[in-house]
Amino acid sequence: MPTEKQKMLAGKAYQAGDAELSKERLKAREIVFEFNNLAPKFIKQRKELLKKLFGKTEKMFYVEPPFRCDYGYNIEIGNNFYANFNLVILDCAKVSIGNNVFIAPNVAIYTAGHPIHAHLRDQEFEWAQEITIGNSVWIGGNVVINPGVKIGSNVVIGSGSIVTRDIPDDVFAAGNPCRVIRKITDEDKDYYYKNFKLEQ
């Protein structure tokens, strides 16, 4: 018979009050507590704690405290990852994040969900679905990403958006629910070279 952890990782209904899962969440919270309470100058030590916590990291990454997560081992981040203050990742399922991803303050990434019907919810059943974020993505402040969402590469998600469905590559998307506003093109690049006098 599968354990509650096996059910969780398989995307099936499970009970989070299970002793094994409770122990793993406590372990993650201990690491997160240490991370969040280190003095600002201890950059290397905070990075080592995240390497210990996350399932996968690359050479270049930086996460501003405070940070919160459930388990940590379901989080995989690519190279040149940056997260600003108050990132929350409920990683009951895998959260895969690509290279060159920038996350603004107060972003919430939720793989976890609960039954709509109170009868099952009152029995503390949960479920979780993976979230995938591609390469070269900028996620604006106060964005919520819901379970099962896939965000493509070269995407900008506007601040305050609630992402409930997949977002394709190369677009600006925003709103509640989040939807594609327009394609991102070379005209967007030219705008910055022209208006901010950047050298090409």
Could you explain the architecture of this structure?
The model has no long low-confidence stretch (mean pLDDT 96). The chain has 5 helices and 19 strands. The chain has a 7-stranded mixed beta sheet, with no helix packed on it. A 5-stranded parallel beta sheet has the order 3-6-9-14-17. The N and C termini lie far apart (60 Å). The longest helix is centred in the first third of the chain and has 19 residues, at 19-37. It has one domain (4-195): Hexapeptide repeat proteins (UDP N-Acetylglucosamine Acyltransferase, domain 1, 3 Solenoid). By secondary structure, it is of the alpha/beta class. It is globular and about 60 Å long. Pfam families: Hexapep, Mac. It comes from Pedobacter yonginense. Its EC number is 2.3.1.-.
